[in-house]
Design a protein that fits this description.
With 127 residues, this protein is mostly beta strands. It has one helix at 105-108, and strands at 3-7, 10-13, 18-25, 33-39, 46-51, 58-60, 68-73, 78-83, 92-99, 116-117, 121-126.
């Protein structure tokens, strides 16, 4: 399995931007579709965004569409989540995940599609 380590979280005020990174190691990064999920205290884990192996397809949750963007750099084995205009409701632990077999947005929006998960990075947005 691929190993994933997230970074870039922190405590910020509403309206600012953050960029999360997810560094992959152990397997060929470009073989995996990648996703971001988040989990707020007391809530279920929810899909945020996903990207296929070649960056040709991206999927973004309606709750963050227009504010968040997912990208990847296969040469650097790194996944990114650019988060703009952050809101207090974006407060959560953000996880990156890797899927060996996911291809469509339908499958990539589901957590069970993913084979590997990172440990998460906390994002806290104050009002």
């Amino acid at each position: 399995q691929v190993q994933l380590v997230e970074s870039g979280g922190g405590l910020v005020q509403a309206g600012v931007s953050l960029r999360l990174s997810c560094a992959a190691s152990g397997r060929t990064f470009s073989n995996y579709a990648m996703g971001w999920f988040r989990q707020a205290p007391g809530k279920e884990r929810e899909f945020v965004a996903a990207i296929n192996r070649s960056s040709g397809i991206t999927c973004v949750a309606e709750t963050v569409k227009g504010r968040f963007a997912i990208s990847r750099d296969n040469a650097k084995n790194t996944l990114y989540l650019q988060m703009n205009s952050l809101k207090p409701e974006d407060t959560a632990v953000y996880y990156c995940a890797a899927a060996l077999h996911g291809t469509s947005c339908v499958s990539l929006k589901q957590g069970r599609t993913y084979d590997s998960w990172g440990q998460g990075t906390q994002v806290t947005v104050s009002s």
